[in-house]
Amino acid sequence: MAVVDTDTRAAGDTGYALEAAGTPDGRADRLSASFSRIFRLNARLRAEPTAVQFDGREVPTLVVLHRLAEQGPLRAGALAERLHMDPSQVSRAVAALVREQAVQRLADPADRRATLLVTTPAGRELAQRFARAKSAHLASIIADWDPVDAEAFTAGLERFVEGLEQHVRSRHGQHQPAHLPPLNTGPDGDDATDTTPADPGATT
Predict the structure, then answer these.
(1) What's the pLDDT at 9?
(2) Count of Cβ atoms closer than 10 Å to residue 87 Cβ
(3) Which of 28, 88, 149, 192 has the largest CB neighbor count within 10 A?
(4) Are 75 and 81 in contact (CB under 8 A)?
(5) Which residues 6+ apart lie within 8 Å of 75 measured at CB?
């Protein structure tokens, strides 16, 4: 089963206009070309009927579940903020998870008029299986790499993502709101910018 994390959007979908920032060197050109290939592969796989499912469930729904399992209980609005997803998409995912008894709605002790979303034991187990599947697929891709190369790539990518996060914040003149975690919260990097495929046979 091919699965791709559809919580990822191509640069052209973010609403950010590209700005001239000097002449890039050859490494930047290669990096840009590689990201273009990733986005094209992602679009191709998302068009396949089995590409947006994991274990018979839609991957965006499991992305919502995984974030909630890591950082909940949360209100629906806060969950959408942390995922940088449209609230209506999060609402649909939550409704599906509630029907499956993976998530339950509870009254917020701080405001009885509000509702908190909480994962059930079954929901947490499903979120863990989803995370393990993503990690296992990435491990299969780099299985024949030299360990030194794999470590260098991982460290370099982590550094790149940290720089990208800083760039996004600085260009908007924003500081991270107190009620939100850093963008890279989550041991497996499962954020809105997550480009990891979710299952063997998938590519972002």
Answers:
(1) 43
(2) 13
(3) 192
(4) no
(5) 108, 114, 115, 116, 117
Task: Give the residue with greater pLDDT, 106 vs 165.
Answer: 106
Residue with tokens 């190369």: 149
Domain 26-171: which topology? Arc Repressor Mutant, subunit A (1.10.10)
To which residue do tokens 């790539």 refer? Answer: 153
Most confident listed range (9-23, 44-58, 161-175, 181-195): 161-175
Distances (CA, A) of 12 to 8, 19, 83, 156, 162: 12, 13, 18, 24, 20
For every residue of the chain, DSSP letters joined together read --B--TT---GGGS-PPP---S---HHHHHHHHHHHHHHHHHHHHHTSTTTBEETTEEHHHHHHHHHHHHH-SB-HHHHHHHHT--HHHHHHHHHHHHHTTSEEEEEETTEEEEEEEEE-HHHHHHHHHHHHHHHHHHHHHTTTS-HHHHHHHHHHHHHHHHHHHHHHHHHTT----TTS--TT-STT--STT----SSTT---
pLDDT tens, position by position, 97-123: 999 999 999 998 888 888 999 999 999
What is the sign of the dihedral through the CA atoms of 157, 168, 30 and 9? positive
